From TrEMBL:
GO molecular function terms listed in the Swiss-Prot or TrEMBL record: oxidoreductase activity
Protein's organism: Mytilus coruscus
Source taxonomy: Eukaryota, Metazoa, Spiralia, Lophotrochozoa, Mollusca
Pfam families referenced in this protein's UniProt entry, alphabetically: Octopine_DH
InterPro entries referenced in this protein's UniProt entry, alphabetically: 6-PGluconate_DH-like_C_sf, 6PGD_dom2, Opine/Lysopine_DH, Opine_DH
UniProt-recorded name of the protein: Octopine dehydrogenase,Opine dehydrogenase,Tauropine dehydrogenase
Length: 161
């Protein structure tokens, strides 16, 4: 989680460097976010792992499991993977990709998850898999640069007024 967060913070920093008028200050490391958001519910905030393990708000969270012959296995068809990966992490990877931020941790997670759900978004280090059109990554819409993405967002937002 910490390494993944490092990659997202680096992406926000790159965007700020490229577009100095964009305020990305709300993008903070997950460790800082845990400490700010759950400061009353965490008994040990010394690391991301400790924040998660000692967070009273998370005490009832478990990953759904499936019964199998010799016990239980994770239910890889549950939304934590089938929704959060393609509509969360793949989108974040797409934004990082268009601003040229390396994402080895995100890549590792996406590759693992796509193998569990039978999808292909990431091939090598790039979002060019056969199922990419099913997600909302910038590459799904043909955007290859930050300017293209921002122009679309700003034009789309203005047209809604």
């Amino acid at each position: 989680m910490s390494n993944l967060s490092d990659e997202l913070v680096a992406t926000a920093k790159r965007i700020s460097d490229l577009k100095t008028n964009m305020d990305m200050s709300d993008v903070i490391h997950i460790h800082d976010w845990f400490k700010q958001r759950y400061y009353k519910q965490i008994s040990d905030d010394s690391s991301v792992s400790k924040c998660m393990r000692t967070n009273q708000a998370y005490s009832q969270f478990v990953h759904p499991m499936k019964a199998v012959e010799n016990g239980y296995v994770p239910d890889f068809e549950y939304r934590y993977i089938t929704e959060d990966i393609p509509f969360g992490l793949v989108v974040m990877k797409g934004i990082a990709e268009i601003v040229s931020v390396e994402t080895p941790t995100i890549d590792k997670i996406i590759k693992w998850a796509q193998s569990k759900i039978g999808k292909e978004y990431l091939v090598g280090k790039g979002l060019k898999g056969k199922n990419l059109k099913e997600v909302r990554a910038p590459q799904s819409y043909g955007f290859r640069s930050l300017d293209e993405l921002l122009n679309f967002i700003y034009v789309d937002m203005r047209s809604e007024d």
